[in-house]
Amino acid sequence: xxxxxxxxxxxxxxxxxxxxxxxxxxxxxxxxxxxxxxxxxxxxxxxxxxxxxxxxxxxxxxxxxxxxxxxxxxxxxxxxxxxxxxxxxxxxxxxxxxxxxxxxxxxxxxxxxxxx
Amino acid sequence: xxxxxxxxxxxxxxxxxxxxxxxxxxxxxxxxxxxxxxxxxxxxxxxxxxxxxxxxxxxxxxxxxxxxxxxxxxxxxxxxxxxxxxxxxxxxxxxxxxxxxxxxxxxxxxxxxxxxxxxxxxxxxxxxxxxxxxxxxxxxxxxxxxxxxxxxxxxxxxxxxxxxxxxxxxxxxxxxxxxxxxxxxxxxxxxxxxxxxxxxxxxxxxxxxxxxxxxxxxxxxxxxxxxxxxxxxxxxxxxxxxxxxxxxxxxxxxxxxxxxxxxxxxxxxxxxxxxxxxxxxxxxxxxxxxxxxxxxxxxxxxxxxxxxxxxxxxxxxxxxxxxxxxxxxxxxxxxxxxxxxxxxxxxxxxxxxxxxxxxxxxxxxxxxxxxxxxxxxxxxxxxxxxxxxxxxxxxxxxxxxxxxxxxxxxxxxxxxxxxxxxxxxxxxxxxxxxxxxxxxxxxxxxxxxxxxxxxxxxxxxxxxxxxxxxxxxxxxxxxxxxxxxxxxxxxxxxxxxxxxxxxxxxxxxxxxxxxxxxxxxxxxxxxxxxxxxxxxxxxxxxxxxxxxxxxxxxxxxxxxxxxxx
Lengths: 116, 565
Description:
The structure holds 2 protein chains of 2 kinds. Chain A is mainly α.
């Protein structure tokens, strides 16, 4: 799972094997896709904060009965915040590259999808 | 294993608080937001139906596994864990990993390289239009029926957990899936599948941790399972006699290796378009080949958080203990209630909301995979290549959107059929699993044998299916004395053998396609260069080699098998 989500289809390395959508299809707009990594980071950031607060303020004896003594909200809250930070760091370290002018020209010629 | 359709039971109702509902609501907000944002990325039919072939491999790989990690699978496998113990891992390991590696290394160069947009279209290129249409129609009908089963099960869970009546729960659930798949097409479906993957893990991991904590850790679990009705046998994966219901250990191992590991699993993983479509949307040949192999890593590890909680349920929960002692349903509770009962027993409010979101996510993953592969096959294979060819691309994009709407409405219909006759739906689903084995038979024969003809393909396909259905009927009416499990192994094997045999005979009496038309479609006629992929740019780096990743995941499975022998 070490692939990077960004990147480019330089001529030759991309799918020369990609099909054409149809004879008159407009250039692919799939390049405009937003960054999924950010969404994952946001999800776990919010979940992590909520669980962390739940774990700190509202864990009572009934909850501890359920879990056999551990504070699972606190543990999972911390775990989710770590996941959120990791995805956030991945986005910051390897941001999506906007398509280069050459790629845009290439996309205008054919309907080859761009990397995103 | 998919008969999870237990009655809604007041016992199962979860004690959800406001914070849990808010966590679930936040998840749905993101799901719909992804659909809305993905809309900007759709300008052609290929964008809508195949994500413009632009997806990176980690995304398609996780979507590949998420499309399979539907709730039927989740609930069914946890139930198997409760019933059979460790032997359930065969469904994840030998029953999946070799086939996934084979798909990536051997078959993907042909699928992706042929530029086919769907499995039926690949059949048209290799064989003929008749084969494409037969397979297209079968697949379309099967997808809608199975989407209906998923939807019905989702409705049942919402009814059980939240107390909404089924007539409200089913359309609401369908509307959410419809909203994001119509807006964003396959991109939205795939992005949501990746999100679902993580939320499902956020359900399974705390369940396993807390469960082990309550039971006294792994040692405590082993002790209690050994003392239970299944005995210590349930702590080892081989020979799995209880799972296969084949008393002879040697035959049981053969049944697992050939029946489950070869025919059933290769049939499912290598030809099921709902899976293959995720790889076809990858951005390069290398990414497409890595898709199923990247998906194989989580597939190999997921049983640790599915089978183990299942085993915990069987020794911790009095209701499931009673089911196990009685060997069947007690007071309307079955093994299939293991997951929801565990959630109720183990998870405090807060993490409970995350778990509910995960469970709902799992159902949506299954249904969205059925719907998004249905609309691709319907739009391209049935509408564009058959019924209304030669229209502008804009037209097919509109068709794709409308077919999504119609597909969801039809699924609501089949969901209500399912609610009327649960056994019928199980049966139909089992029946369609028989189409996989003959499809794999003609695929593999067509891939390696250039003499194979077009008519051989569809005749082989149909006769293989007839063979499977015949075995099934014979088992059902006790003419063949086999358990259901062994029956499905035998049925799939018969379908495979008959499919290959008939296709071979028909081929010998016909004219094969000229070799020039088969380049890139048949192994021996495809130059090695076009079977390999670029290793530059984004595809560079030893860690992106499909072969290396494939070998690594196979080694992982061997290690896991040694640990859980």
